[in-house]
TrEMBL record:
PANTHER family in alphabetical order: BLR0577 PROTEIN
Alphabetical list of Pfam families matching this protein: NAD_binding_9
UniProt protein name: Adenylate cyclase
Positions of the FAD-dependent urate hydroxylase HpyO/Asp monooxygenase CreE-like FAD/NAD(P)-binding domain: 18-195
Upper lineage: Bacteria, Bacillati, Actinomycetota, Actinomycetes, Pseudonocardiales
Species whose genome carries this gene: Amycolatopsis pithecellobii
Amino acid sequence: MRGHLALPSNDPARVSMAIVGAGPRGTGVLNRIGANATEILNGRPLTVHFVDPFPPGPGRVWRKAQSPLLRMNSRAYDVTMHGMASANAPVADFSLLEWVEAVRKGQLNADVDAALLPELDVTDPGHFATRRLQSAYLTWYFNETLNNVPRGVDVHIHAASAVDVTGGTDGPQTVWLDSGYGPLVVDAVVLTLGHLEAGPAPHERDLLDFAARHDLTYLPPGYTADLDFSGFGPGETVLVRGFGLAATDLMVLLTEERGGVFSEEGDRLVYRPSGAEPKLYVGSRRGVPHLPKPGYRLQGKPAILPRFFGPGEVSRLAAAAKPLDFRADVWPLVAKEIGWGYYHELFTGHPERVRMGFAEFAHHYAVSGTGDELSELEARAVPAVADRLDLAVADRPLGSLRFTGAAEFTDHLQEHLHEILRRRTDTAFSAELGAVNAVRSAGHMLARLVATGRMAAGSQIHDIDGWWSGFSNYFTSGPPPSRVSELIALSRAGVVSFLGPGMWVRTDERRRQFLAGGESHPTVVVASCLVEARLPVPDLTRTASPLLRALHARGEVTEETLGDGAAPTGRVLTTPTHRIVGRTGIPHPRRFALGPYTSARTPSLFVRPVGVAFGENATMAREILRTLSGVKSP
């Protein structure tokens, strides 16, 4: 159903709620509302208002209206909107791969654009789907959720943005829309807003001012598919700060999207420029792209995770008398967990490359400490140094290497890219997938530990929100392997060059240009364009969301602060049951929020094997329904 003006129902028993944000997260919450409404509301009728200017299901990030060249960074086999089996699940449990197979066989009534049919034909378990195909899957999932909500649950879709929510703590909430339609009057509100745009930070304002004074182009952090690259002309020198997924998308949109062509020539991928490309100089703190997603499955028996960093360890750490330091108290357990995932696969999937049986190794590994004791065990059990896990090298693969100039550094980095591509595509290195799975499991447990509030403020901000977040994204959430092959080809074609690790950017008032370089070689690049290739960090004080700005101005949402309020994190403060906390410190009984902008710090959204978000969706849906069940009839 589509609705414009929604006023209180004439049915005195009916309750209502609004979900603001209709992407995968909001859709997942709606699904869980449908799965639990009959049980918790005991047949009481419910109206759900779904509010988003973008299409329900895909939302903004996964909408159909974007370049067909942009892809997911997860295999079709691992992408799902079903995190757990449920007797009340109102939608068939299809992963993206299973959905594609069912559509191919004509078993599903799915509206798939004709332009996607060739991709449907070639999708296999290892396929990295286009975002347009994912959009079709999410659209189907939303429609199935909508069509299967229980009797008595009505859903109204509003193609609008919510700009404010008003109302007391003990009565109806009014959701104000930007569309000119009347407000929505509901009993509860949940905000599933996803990644949010933000105004520029102070140093970004300085760069914007410099660019404006000298007729240059500077793009602050933002969602790459929505950035305006028209200021990057053919052959123009562009500095790209960041080497993660945003940079990958940027390179696609500024090369192949502009008419360049990749082709296979022998055993090499070659890029033929169109002439419309700018010249890109890319760098970051680490100086290398995120590791590509493994293009294989485990070859041995899957490890049961968690093993060394699970709920028991979280409980023990949370009971500590003093605030926890990540490096001293938590990282040894996390590192051992990652090593367990790695070596479990090495020993069970490639027994010919080890010197002892897995049972013997597992016993010694369990009782070994860290440092030299563990290194000695690895040396005894794994003869090839290349088969041993070194997390320090994995984190900073270029280390302290120095080169005479850009050309020598480029040669080295191309060799490095070939090596990481080999390790992420050849099943001989499937132990890396074991480590990837263990990093995801550890991220789940870290989220639980952070929720206990026992981490020291500085360690949480710098070590977990900072280093760990960057490392886990780099290690587990990289692009498809094909993107690394394309990056090598772009480098050989002279379209992309590398600044290396420790990238720095300065402004030169005399030259009226940006300057940039890195730690690995002395080359300094002079450029007229600079783009920050990353999403904005959560920052309630700079958010571009008019809804959060309005709530924040009245003190009805507040920023999470750590260390007795001395360390703000920028995130919206919520309780463990995802209720919004205002300036008074009292959770609002009728307002909820969930997503990366909140203090919940949820890991991956719809990627197996962890899928923490699915459990959160279910927990919050049941909490909202329990709240609604207690709303008295007028």
